[in-house]
Amino acid sequence: MLAAVLKDFDKLVLEDVPVPEPKMGEAVVRIKSCGVCATDYKAIKGIRRNVTFPIIVGHEPSGIVSAVGQGVTQFKEGDEVIIQPSGYCGHCANCRSGDTHYCKHSFVTGGDGPADVRNGAFAENMKTDAVCLFHKPKQISWDAAALTEPLSGAWKGVIRYSEMRVGDDAVIIGVGGIGLLCMMVAKAAGAGRLIAIDVSDYALGQASRLGATHAINPKKCDPVKRVYEILPEGPDLVMEAAGPIEAVKLTVALLRRGTRWNVFGITTHEKFELDGGLTHFLEARMDASFGTNPQAMLRAIRLMETGLVNPEEIITHRFPLTDIHKAVEVMGTPERNKVMIHP
Question: Looking at the domain assignment, is residue 155 inside a domain?
């Protein structure tokens, strides 16, 4: 089969590799679509260094089951499926409490996080545990289905952890792919005023098209002053979905008494300061969210199935696997949002 194998930083090679064979409890999926996440791009370009070579990255896939291993009864050859990239043991205390993304024996297919990183979906086929598969509703497109994992992460952060409520005034800092999904989930949940903040006018244009009531570019104004002009009482919820430490600092600057804030986008080990007394008296509640779990995946599928959120609306570019190098180039440009690979 054809696969894009990352041999070293900035050395992505298209080559023929053996089709994986499923062992007990596993399934092989013929990939129809896979999103390109920023973590994939960072691995390819060497921006993140926790990569072991060779590896096939790509962790946002959908496809058709092509083979199943012994003991797999819930899926069969020909089933259309969505793949959760994070695998789990199902037996540790974290798994049994429902927090499978905390699993002590977790693995990830084509992504980042645990020590056990397995080949992902920038290939014609990929293998994973059958427990990581979900049946794809017929009305959901392959591209939308492939974005279930990032959509599930947005639902988990905005709804489960930060408890978005109908009528809440929300600020989303960073409206790239994941920020737009957070914004779309917040809109579906009944946000009042929905403010998008980004340094890219292109991204802000996308956000306005998809439901933001206000757009702020911090390069052009004081973002704190502007938010408080729009929301004199301050925001109910602030989602940091950007990544840079400056976005986290802006989140802190936006807090008023009782604001819920979620450190969602940053993954680098950088520091920011909190005033202890001010934090005490503000009673602002901080949450953070990473990864996904089966509950969040099911909720994301329902959001798509009922038409409340269509993640396909954030896609700006599509490439066949043979043009993956062009896709990587596009990922490095400012005027793009979600990039998809079609093996």
Answer: no
Longest dimension (CA), the chain: 61
Q: Look at residue 234 in the predicted model and tell me its pLDDT.
A: 98
- What domain range includes position 76? 2-150+292-342
- Of 245, 267, 288, the residue that ends a domain is 288
Whether residue 284 is found in the same domain as residue 325: no
What are all long-range contacts of 315-321, with beta carbons under 8 Å and residues at least 24 apart? 315/143, 315/147, 315/339, 315/340, 318/143, 318/342, 321/2, 321/4, 321/14, 321/122, 321/123, 321/124
210 lies in the same domain as 303: no
Same domain, 325 and 242: no
Q: Is 129 found in the same domain as 34? A: yes
| Whether residue 338 sits in one domain with residue 319 | yes
Alpha-carbon separation of residue 140 from 80, 272, 312 (angstroms):
10, 41, 10
Strand bridging mode 315-320 / 338-342: parallel
> What is the H or E stretch that residue 5 is in?
strand 2-8
Of 218, 297, 281, the closest CA to residue 250 belongs to 218
The domain spanning residue 192 has which CATH number? 3.40.50.720
Same domain, 126 and 200: no
Q: Give the containing element (helix H, strand E) for 40.
A: helix 38-45
Would you state the pLDDT for residue 268? 84
pLDDT < 50 stretches in the chain: none
Cα radius of gyration (the chain): 20
314 and 239 within one domain: no
Structure tokens at 317: 């570019």
Q: 3-state DSSP call for residue 179? A: helix
Helices 177-188 and 148-155, packing angle to 10 deg? 60
Helices (runs of H) and strands (runs of E) counted in the chain: 11, 18
Exposed / middle / buried, residue 162 (Cβ in 10 Å: 0-12, 13-18, 19+):
buried
User: Side by side, which strands form the sheet with 170-173?
Assistant: 214-216, 194-197, 170-173, 237-240, 260-263, 285-288
In Å, how far are 6, 161, 260, 273, 282 from 252, measured between CA atoms?
A: 38, 18, 11, 9, 11
Give the Cα separation of 313 and 118 in Å (integer): 29
Residues 262 and 319 grouped into a single domain: no
